[in-house]
Amino acid sequence: MNTSVSNPLSLWRKTSLIGKSVGLLSNWYPTSYLLQYSEAIASILIGILIVLAPFSSTTMMGIILVAISGFWILLTLAEVKTNQITAIHLWIFFYWLASIVSTAFSPLKTASLSGLIKFSLYLVFFALCARVLSHKKFLQWITTTYLLVSLVVSGYGIRQQFIGVTPLATWTDPTSPNAEVTRVYSYLGNPNLLGGYLLPAVALGLGALILWKTKAQKALAVVIVVTNVACIYFTGSRGAWLALIALGFTFLVALNYWWGEYLSPFWRKWLVPIIVGAFSLFVITALIVVEPLRLRILSMFSWRGDSSNNFRINVWYAVFQMMRDYPITGIGLGNQVFNQIYPLYMRTNFTALSSYSIFLEIPLETGIIGISLFMGILVATFKGAIVKIKTFKLKNREMGIWIIACLAALVGLATQGVFDTVWFRPQINTLWWLLIGVIASNVRVMDN
């Protein structure tokens, strides 16, 4: 069945001002020496952003994203590519439109406009990733770059664990027995942010372990995975721990499908339950033996008994009241809007910079319309990933493993996002859209 949406898009391109601008400089493209290497240049720009992300300021990342946006606009004007729009692209486009509507109806339009501009830069970054990362060599180059950078970041985090580090904020309940436990933050300044940043490195590291050819490369992949997992543990981030479990389970189930035909009927049926059972036994044993881990895990279930839990609950109550007053289009985008409206609803002594859940922050910012479209992006991405995994399995193409890794990483980041909003920070948000870009780059509307 042809799922192409090319006819409506072709009509739009012929009749709209923006549509007519696509390919406006197409006659110049074949004669341009620079644009003959457009995909390599795009990969270099993406790589520069990945290299600098953990170490640079938000302003610097913004400058690089502006450069990426400018290059994407140049490519769009100069080169017309057919069969590039997927269902993922369309859902993201409509989500962007909903963000514009949210800004238009925001009580703080100027502040929301600033958030909209930042959000638009992320989406253009996705568009560029989706344009080039279907090419194996560029994908391998980008993933290898990120994995090596993550190794530096996690290595420094582990060093902090052993030498000790002064917390930059009160990340642990001061009345808890765990109050003196070190929570590492490496170069990112926040343990929850560090945990989220390293999650995709675990998934892509597992993919590299499978796909990298030589023994030295596989040994490096093992080091990357083990180091990143250890550093995530040392962050003490409960959300990152839960995300790591969700990531691992997703990867395990997908690999069981990928290699299922090579397994005996017994292992095909029992491999996943046996591994899950063994992991559960390991966790239970660790909870019994390691007191700091036990106290940290049990704090998840203490409701208001833990100060971090209590803080989030009070913030969530205020957020629900804000959502009640701005249900359709939300309050507008960005932390500037939140910081000005939240004090009108907050409970005494519970100041906050965000709603501490992306699945509350998105409907708060863009209303029912925005969260519906965001869920559409997730469904389209997961559906597209599953379809391509099946296709690549039949063709025995290794790109399927990278898509499995991206899907597992997305599950991990979404799981952490249930309890935190570090997802909105550029170090993680760029990774999120890069992962979706990898999947979208392999999902073409002309697939049958």
From TrEMBL:
This protein's record includes keyword Repeat: no
Keyword tags: Membrane, Transmembrane, Transmembrane helix
Residue span, O-antigen ligase-related domain: 224-375
Claim: Transmembrane is one of the keywords in the record: yes
Taxonomy, superkingdom: Bacteria
Membrane topology: Multi-pass membrane protein
TM region(s), chain numbering: 34-53, 59-78, 85-105, 111-133, 138-158, 194-212, 219-235, 241-259, 271-290, 367-387, 399-419, 431-447
NCBIfam families the record matches: 2A73
Protein name: Inorganic carbon transporter
